[in-house]
């Protein structure tokens, strides 16, 4: 299982494409005004998908700041983790019943 995306990791990913240090990334800034073009955004989406966060271009395009991106990504990541936990629990319950 890949390591989860953290706020520090998110900032570092943005900083790489904005040519800044992570502590220089202004989360209230608009991604487009900050200089991210669609190719860089798609590249970031692929990187974040590798951490297990299912997000698409349209969802990010609807956000007007990096803070909104982080809110979307972290909420999605939390929801996916809960769903994975429920799936594992249901699978284990089935194994327990089968073994009884």
UniProtKB/TrEMBL annotation:
Source superkingdom: Bacteria
Biased amino acid composition, Low complexity: 81-92
Entries under Pfam families matching the protein: PP-binding
Carrier domain: residues covered: 11-69
Gene3D superfamilies: ACP-like
Positions of the UniProt region annotated as Disordered: 81-100
Designated name of the protein: Phosphopantetheine attachment domain protein
Species: Streptomyces dioscori
């Amino acid at each position: 299982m890949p390591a989860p995306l953290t706020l520090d990791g998110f900032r570092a990913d943005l900083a790489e494409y904005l040519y800044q240090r992570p502590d220089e990334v202004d989360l209230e800034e608009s991604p487009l005004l900050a200089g991210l073009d669609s190719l860089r955004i798609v590249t970031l989406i692929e990187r974040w998908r590798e951490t297990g966060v299912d997000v698409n271009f349209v969802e990010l395009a609807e956000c007007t700041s990096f803070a909104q991106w982080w809110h979307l990504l972290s909420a999605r990541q939390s929801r996916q983790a809960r769903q994975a936990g429920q799936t594992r629990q249901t699978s284990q319950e089935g194994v327990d019943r089968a073994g009884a």
